[in-house]
């Protein structure tokens, strides 16, 4: 099969559906998963995303019909990838109650592909015990060349910040641009080609469970990320003899094996365990239309639930372009200390809580109970009376947050990174006291008090 051009890529729409796709007519067996001989002489292979016995509502698996099965490979050998750069061992990492921020991570000038450009910032738990998560950034200047990654540790939610990615998977091909995200679930093999000369972005990897859409509760049956806006690639295969390298991430370590053919040889597949992508511009935000600042959970795109209701392993939350209209309200994020920890990144534009220092391609991390909030300039602007006009948040902005319940430990490499901003704390040092012991309710500028405060 020829490689489809960009505008020819096709997707199946819906979230978590039981999909089926065939690249050749009749390649999907009818009425059973394991015919004695599969159509076109294909091998049947099941990829499980849950235990076999997981409740039906959570059970995930897909059947892949492929030219040769994935078991046909030379033995795996350790790749000797630097453990300080990519890890799932957070016992040796560090905790700090300090606010952390990184300037944009620089993109290598020598040839570095997506896998070799992964850099672990922080994480918690362990892939072996199937709990917790890791947060990485990637910086890449080269495509993966006859090389794919399969991650035995967990699902990877990829947030491109700069440079589009063409991701070939066993299920088909997807293109993911900045402003879009994709999820490659545990075990699915994929190869990342760069659409431009380089790429940078963020990865949230969850060691337990899978991402799902959050419940909408009283919001009703529509809004936020709508299921129909998620795209799964259609089957695509190549039959190509080559020296192909399969990299397996296993307990945070990388192993590689050679095989004599492309792993993207799946002619047809069906099931509910697939990679998918989503355009964040399709997110339909719901927010305050009268007053006050709701919690950022209103902007949850995807959540990876834990066994405790309402306590996610990790939430993926965005701060999309939107109108802000709340009256008699301090509109930026409130000052706060949380039980959950917050890793933030910026895809483009400016984040509403920071006037400077938080740049696209950079990051911040506020561990649980670490105080944070708007910087001094943002605060001083937001208390001015003229801050209350309906306004569109600074231009075309897209920040996001990985909000996690286990407190992450930060890797020594991330703490010692040349990109770390050791002056971050200074952005709050100018927050002066506005306390006025002689203040009286009448001193409040006219029109500023809430209508109900004077009985109206
Ligand atoms: O810390 C942050 O900037 C993220 C955030 C945004 C918001 O609107 C409310 C709370 C919160 O943690
Ligand atoms: Fe926060």
TrEMBL record:
Xref: InterPro entries: HgmA_C (IPR046451), HgmA_N (IPR046452), Homogentis_dOase (IPR005708), RmlC-like_jellyroll (IPR014710), RmlC_Cupin_sf (IPR011051)
UniProt superkingdom: Eukaryota
Enzyme active site: 293
Residues that coordinate or bind Fe cation: 336, 342, 372
Cofactor(s) this protein requires: Fe cation
GO molecular function list: homogentisate 1,2-dioxygenase activity; metal ion binding
Annotated Gene Ontology cellular component terms: cytoplasm
KW DNA-binding (keyword) present: no
Pfam families attached to this UniProt entry: HgmA_C, HgmA_N
Domain Homogentisate 1,2-dioxygenase N-terminal: 10-280
Domain Homogentisate 1,2-dioxygenase C-terminal: 282-435
Pathway: Amino-acid degradation; L-phenylalanine degradation; acetoacetate and fumarate from L-phenylalanine: step 4/6
Keywords: Dioxygenase, Iron, Metal-binding, Oxidoreductase, Phenylalanine catabolism, Tyrosine catabolism
GO BP: L-phenylalanine catabolic process; L-tyrosine catabolic process
The enzyme's E.C. designation: 1.13.11.5
UniProt record similarity statement: Belongs to the homogentisate dioxygenase family.
PANTHER family documented for this protein: HOMOGENTISATE 1,2-DIOXYGENASE
Protein name: homogentisate 1,2-dioxygenase
Organism: [Myrmecia] bisecta
